[in-house]
Amino acid sequence: MASIDITTQEELHGHGHDDHHDDDHHGDKFASGFFSRYVFSMDHKTIAKQFLITGIIWAIIGAAMSIVFRLQLGFPEESMAWLRPILGKWIIVDAEGFGTLDPDFYYALVTMHGTILVFFVLTAGLSGTFSNLLIPLQIGARDMASPMLNMFSYWFFFLAGAIMFASLFLNTGPFSGGWTAYPPLSAVPAAMDGSKAGMTLWTVSLVFFVVSVLLGGMNYITTVINMRTKGMTMLRMPLPIWAFLVTAILGLLSFPVLAAAFFLLIFDRSLGTSFFISEIFINNAPLENVGGSPILYQHLFWFLGHPEVYIIILPAFGIVSEVLSVHSRKPIFGYKAMVLSILAIAFLAFIVWAHHMFMTGMNPFIANIFVLFTLIIAVPSAVKVFNWIATLYGGAIRFNAASLFGIGFVSLFISGGLTGIFLGNSAIDIQLHDTYFVVAHFHIVMGIAAFFGMFAGIYHWFPRMYGRFMNETLGRIHFWGTMICAYAIFWPMHYIGMAGVPRRYYTFEQFEAFNQFSSMNEFITVAAIISFALQILFVINFFYSIFYGKKQKVMNPYGANTLEWTVPVNAGHGNWPGPIPHVYRWAYDYGKDGREFIPQTEPLKEGEYDMGDHH
Amino acid sequence: MGALIILSLILLGVVLVQIGKVNELSASIRGEEEAQESANRNHAIIGMGFMISFLVFVIASFIYYKDSMLGYGPLEAASIHGVEVDNIFNVTMVITGIVFFLTHIALFWYAYKYRGRAGHKAKFIPHDNRLEIIWMVIPSIAMAFLVIYGLAVWNMAMADIPENEVAGKDFIEIEANGQQFGWNLRYPGADNHLGATYYKLISSDNPFGQVWDDPKNHDDFQPSEIVLPVNKKVRVRITSRDVLHNFYLPHFRVKMDAVPGMPTYFVFTPTKTTEEFKEGLKGYPEWEKPTDPTDPSSNSRREDFNFELACAELCGNGHFSMKKLVKIVTEEEYQAWLTTQTSYYAANITGEVPEKVDTPAPVDAAPEVIKDEAEETTVIDAKVEEAVDDKKTVEEVIEKAVEEVVEPVEDGTTPK
Ligand code: HEM
Ligand SMILES: [Cu+2]
Ligand SMILES: [Cu+2]
Q1: pTM attached to this predicted model
Q2: Which ligand is nearest to the CA of B310?
């Protein structure tokens, strides 16, 4: 921390920020043709939209997949023959015309659903969109440090997506060994159809994805550290920027480990090495590989995997903090505690990974340390929750789709965070590991909560992106519907998990102990379908509003303090037509001295104390 | 049918979009400010309604499902450590439940109370160090308690067999070996020790890859279901021949991955026989329902109840089907059952089924066996070292060692 601050000061005094040589950026000589404007654009605002729209498309695909496998779980007695025109041979139709989902394809769907949502939607679609959109706009920069790398970051993501998409059409099907891809299942092609070509494409796709994350992350970090406008000290930065910065650092430190794990996995698969496999007898023959350890892969995977869940949720933290503060017309409560808790969570995120591995045969003694660190994370998490609630306290809350999703986020984060306390305690995890309880936990705390953060951000900054508003009425219907459906889907899963029902089961009928929830499973599936329909409503609203939404007439429609609202509605590449504004105060002077809001660009009055100053 | 649903969904979508447009229009006519204020009121009220119905739903559903859950009703743990797991689960439930209710009430109540109204201004409250310290310290204390409590249970539950305990007398060791898609089971037989295995020896005649030169293998038998005496400690040696599996006994709170190349274990003590457990299900309506819902005269679910072994780690497209039944019986029943089992070696390899051994081998013989084994292992180790000096491949070394010492490569018995 200290060293970062020193750079800041140095930079402010040393280089200053008169920004003369930046001025000629404007006028957009970079974006002349159609291609350079909309396709290979280097404008961070356009790249943000590309991330967002690609993310939305992937979200629709990923969600549609979940509907298909939910139909199998909720209505195993109904024929799926009607899906045959779309899914072809993956629907097995028997002599009587009764169609069932091929179990191989069931697992492929589950795997693709997880991979797509975790990486493509909630990492690229969420952090990619909002880091790109907000970092330059909120810190007062004309673009990212390297617009070119930024563009590559998007196109590597696109490439990763294209490869993953292609794998859906393989004859042996896409990868089907779960989004965690544990070897030997993923390492031995004979173990499963999906572990053949599907797994190869899966790893290749994700390696490109890692490249995308690294390029983006480097850019975000450099930009935040070096390109803040004059007066924007670290402690005057709006919370989303803190969140994006720390997210990028997490990504930079953890994704290379994932890439390493994937390379070793590729070696095991194609070069005959034995990093992760040992003493395997499969397909009536022994393999020669000895000495490897499947547990090693799990350590490498979760060394990314746990930070990854925070890579997903931290941007949502930042967005929600901003949205709740702006629409409560109140400063975020405990700004410094919010920053510190982000840093604490990020630090702890690196030393808790093995809580995913309590029951994998890892030495049980090691679990002691991981239980301790894992439960410590609950403390900064609790601080955040209390501070959000305290932000609402005493406010004059403006209810709109954005702030509603912000409030919904807090509710979900509480519910999902509390179940983490069960799972983090290894003794309880003996029973709950790999049951529906885990499914409920991570969907609520990470999946749905991050989505809510994303929705809050989209509704809030939609005018910043498109110069128009999304339809508020539809947005509010979208919110309440989704809120109810989210709990309707995932709350009951806790009970299923508490009864011991394992996750990743194609059918529960084989086990007396697991087969007692058919009506609950039906209910969940129906709620999932309704929820899917509501998201389609959102998508319609989104695309409709891009062209026909209510126009943004004033520059600062919410009465917000941050710099992105000092940029004219249809700003081109370079953001500010004139010089970049300077900053004199923190971002949260709402309701101070009887004034509803005081923008960051307004100088401090004589003797006025700024909350963002170091004292 | 499908088309109809899709059509009505589209229609609903169109209607909603129209409502959205109309509402927006009326808002701009009424004036932004006023429209926002009425929205604030409406949504604040909906929020309170949501919060109350949500919390009621939580309580009601919890009560409704409590009999099918961990730690309550008839599904309480049937093992010693399992009871502790259930207890700490319940304690955590109480602590987190309180937090859940308080925070949800505060969240929606403040949202309601501080909705934007005409003439109502937000207060400037940037922070409050005292409050923040309080709500950092309280969770810390709660977490400290849960960590200490949790680790005590964990270390108790995961402890391996102490060194001085004797196989057969103090505990039974069995092996569960996962494969796509099923479990192979192995009992140690009269000598109370599982024989050694080597994965390259696996074949359809030898599902575990037992090393037949190891005499400890000769009396091992492979039943089709797990049968265990009540109140006796069991050490399950958990292995896999192909991919990861997970040995999961939901009723006993037992769960451990089966890892190829790396045997794992779980030690537990069943405390209820199957019959006693069934007894406990009496009086719970859902357990009195017929097993086959279409045939009311079939046995009730309670009568057909059995403990089950499942797989809890994704292992391929048949992962959901790796089932075995588990029977917990009295000591006498267990002894009787043992006599009905035939050694796999005798039945399938030599083909001569010996006279049944009626009494289990004298227990004091066990320590001797362990000693022998230690000696033999040393011999192998020496050979391996020798060979490594000769720069041979590990493969060769092991094969050679097996031949020469007539002894397991993989130590298939109790821990040292
Ligand atoms: C109070 C904080 C939290 C604690 C103590 C906690 C604890 C845990 C534990 C112990 C597991 C492993 C359960 C098992 O597999 O048996 C787990 C799973 C998971 N958690 Fe959390 N968690 C917390 C917060 C979060 C957050 C904030 C996210 C995401 C934003 C998250 C996402 C996940 C995911 C994705 C999984 C499942 C991974 C898988 O096996 O597929 N958790 N959590
Ligand atoms: Cu984790
Ligand atoms: Cu399995």
Answers
A1: 0.89
A2: 3
